[in-house]
Design goal:
The protein is of the alpha+beta class and 101 residues long. 23% of the residues lie in helices and 26% in strands. It is built from 3 helices and 6 strands; from the N terminus they run βββαβββαα.
Amino acid sequence: MLATLDAYGGGLVKYAVSQDGIWLFSFAQPLTASESEGLTGFHPADLVPKQLDGVDGYFYAVQGGAPLLPLPFTADQLTEFNKRTAGLIASCIERGSETDA
């Protein structure tokens, strides 16, 4: 895991960034339908929780095990993912003074 982005103020739910992409990470399982849709834009039936050795918690992937937002991604893919997550990703990313919308 390269970094984590706090979701809903951190606590038990975070976005995890790995070399493969962005995942939803939670210490608890399963997420409710409203939590899943609010955090990922996907219904829980469309997500697969997976555990990694040595990590307490669950990484949520789309069916087939792919990250919610695979790397590399385009600006359009990031914008769409940000819409699906109700702006949570954008609110987690620090922007420099040279960053435009």
